[in-house]
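This section describes the prediction task in plain terms. A model, or a person checking by hand, is given the sequence of a single protein chain and must write out its three-dimensional structure as a string of tokens. No templates, partner chains or ligands are provided. The sample shown here is typical of the held-out split.
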Amino acid sequence: MRLRARARCALRMMIEVARSSKSANVSLAEVAGRTKISRRYLDQVAMSLRNAALIRGQSGKGGGYQLTKPAANVSVGQIVEAAMGPVNVVECVGRPGTCTKSDRCECRWLYALINRRITDVLEEISLEELANKRETRGLLDDCEPFGHACPEPQ
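The expected answer:
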């Protein structure tokens, strides 16, 4: 599965909103400045996040965006799905009718398993964990704060 740019931008935007909205609304101009994502693109991403009821906006002076619920109650999976739709590594997993071979495909169970595992990982990590996570030196160090061990390198 490829995590599209839109999902990556949504994650970065939500991290900034989570970090800033504890004290005040955060404007898209502020998010754009911190993340180096264009304001125009952030407008589109914000619309998806609003439609998914993950953020709300306020107009006028002091306006901007804030989370609709605590960051601990927002999963990375919710953000990714708001930005790009449900995780679906192969079309026939989510919609068997799109493939004439789905009922007899030897690999469909594998695709479904991969899909489930990706979804599980995205759902088990909260925005709060992501926003409070400090950068570390390596990939193996990154997994431990989320309650699971990474596989040992081969």
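For orientation: The longest helix spans residues 108-124.
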